[in-house]
Amino acid sequence: GMKHILVNNQSARLRPNAVEPSKLPGQLLLTIRTFFYATLLLASIACASAFQGPDTSKAYHVSFQASLDPSSGHAHVSMTLDQSSQLVRSIEFIMPDERYLNIRTSFSTVDTIGDRVTWRPEQNGGVLNFDFIIDHRRSNGLADARITDTWALLKLDKLFPRATARTVKGAYANTTLLLTAPEGWRIETPYGEIAGQEVSISDPHRQFDKPLGWLLAGELAVRRENWSGRHISVASPLGTNLHANDILAFLRWTLPALVDVFPNFPQRLLIVSAAKDMWRGGLSGVGSLYLHSDRPLISGNRTSPMLHELFHVASRMHGSTGADWIIEGLAEYYSLTLLLRSGGISEFRYDEAFATLAQWSAKTQCSATNRSQGKQTARSAIIMRSLDEEIRAATHNRASLDTLVQELVKLDQPVSNAAFRDAAKKLIGGSARSLTGCP
Q1: Could you write out the three-class secondary structure of 128-146?
Q2: 54 has which bridge partners?
Q3: Are 301 and 358 in contact, with CB atoms under 8 Å apart?
Q4: Taking the model in full, what pTM does it have?
Q5: Which residues of 11-24 are buried (b: 16+ CB within 10 A; e: fewer)?
Q6: Are 232 and 249 in contact (CB under 8 A)?
Q7: Shortest CA distance to 119 belongs to which of 187, 69, 166?
Q8: Please, which residues have CB within 8 angstroms of residue 270's CB and are 6 or more apart in sequence?
Q9: Of 328, 302, 298, 331, which Cα lies nearest the Cα of 314?
Q10: How far is the first Cα of the chain from the last one, in angstroms, to the nearest whole number?
Q11: Mean pLDDT by 10 residues, the chain (439 residues)
């Protein structure tokens, strides 16, 4: 609210040559008073408007719910929309046939063309139901989603498919999430441990909020840590033999360096793992990441799979067509650089690691790709180091690759090859020699 300040006029002293208000001409005094009260009225109106907040008549509520069912291998999913008027005209989902079954609704229209499902709810809303097949294997035959009799691991991004809503201008969603599982199961998400509890979902990066990130449920071993106001959870199925305390110790010494580059690092971080026939790598998600229990925190070549995935979590950067070499190269570069900055490795070991990457990728060209892996990512990391040195030299250390990355993060859109080149050119004051031969 407004603060009122009382001035004791009797103790106030007029400046020399000042005219007392009582001696001012009547018309002038009236004009001053009128101006003063008009200004005060306008300020009050502006202040009241600032505190009114969003137009609640434009709000609608979306409830995402899912029940994990080991007996069928499915999650039984519903999405409930409540609205006082037809703020939401339609919602289009990407739902491939191989994982989304029995799509149905009552008192609404659902149209399916290929893997695109369009839901047109009634004026006051409605409910969309479907079943989701949890188990999923990558091209190498290893699973990146799995449900067993004692645990389930999957991404909320897949459980609740990608969606685009057509709404009345200015309409906004209040979104909640409710997950249930067999009795005795815990459910860990980037929103906290939420078995049977309804939680609010808010994502400033999206107009239509929906649950995102990794989900691990079942009979779990969980370790938690609070660091500088951030809540970190490390979870795995019982018997996985994940060294959770080692992970928490690793994060305590490396996260400060990461947060220096990305001050908006999530307030909650969930790290999940599993063994058996799960994919033996790392995969990032919103506010969360998956890392197989066999993966080291620091590899033999001194790159860090954990810091590589944490770069993705922190930056939320994605490449547009042909630009994945940029995103993966940055992640690999920072997996080494953050170790150096945090004191995890010496400069000698840092240089040695890049020499190893250079030798391994010597015959690899910098080229456009939608999926950068192995030698191409190694070559990209070397390019990023050269670009950092070039920016520092051109700006006399007033800017670095950190600066470039922070500017791209602010744009909050997929990074293209052209946008990356332009951002580098702006800092250097000319074309970047480091990017010669790159798309």
Answers
A1: EEEEEECCEECCCCCEEEE
A2: none
A3: no
A4: 0.85
A5: eeeeeeeeeeeeee
A6: no
A7: 166
A8: 188, 189, 190, 213, 214, 216, 233, 235, 287, 288, 289
A9: 331
A10: 55
A11: 34 39 48 50 47 70 97 97 91 92 89 94 94 94 95 97 92 94 96 92 79 97 92 95 94 96 96 88 96 93 95 97 98 98 96 97 95 96 98 98 97 96 97 96
CA atoms of 11 and 345, how far apart (whole Å): 66
Q: Are 307 and 335 a contacting pair, CB within 8 Å?
A: yes
- What is the Cβ-side half-sphere exposure of residue 319, based on CA atoms within 13 angstroms? 20
Tokens of 191: 């929103």
Instruction: Check residue 276 and give its pLDDT.
Output: 74
- Please identify which residue in the block is written with the tokens 């006082």: 84
Cα torsion angle, 432, 434, 436, 438, sign: negative
* Residues counted in the chain: 439
- Those residues with Cβ within 8 angstroms of residue 340's Cβ, 6 or more apart along the chain or in another chain: 346, 347, 350
Which residues fall within 8 angstroms of residue 21, CB to CB, at 6 or more apart?
29
CB atoms within 10 A of CB 35: 10
Sheet holding 109-113, edge to edge: 109-113, 116-120, 88-94, 163-167
Beta-carbon count within 10 A of 108 CB: 15
Cα 268 to Cα 64, 226, 288, 346: the distances in Å are 20, 9, 8, 30
Among 282, 266, 275, residue whose Cα is nearest residue 237: 275
Which amino acid type is present at position 390? E
H or E stretch covering 92: strand 88-94
- Give residue 8's pLDDT: 34
The residue ranges of DSSP E strands in 106-190, in sequence order, are 109-113, 116-120, 125-133, 136-137, 143-147, 151-155, 163-167, 172-180, 186-189
- Quick check: 106 and 114 in contact, CB under 8 A? no
What's 171's DSSP letter?
-
CB atoms < 10 A from the CB of 309, how many? 23
Angle at which helix 244-261 crosses helix 324-341, to 10 degrees, equals: 110
Do residues 207 and 244 touch, judged by C-beta distance below 8 A? no
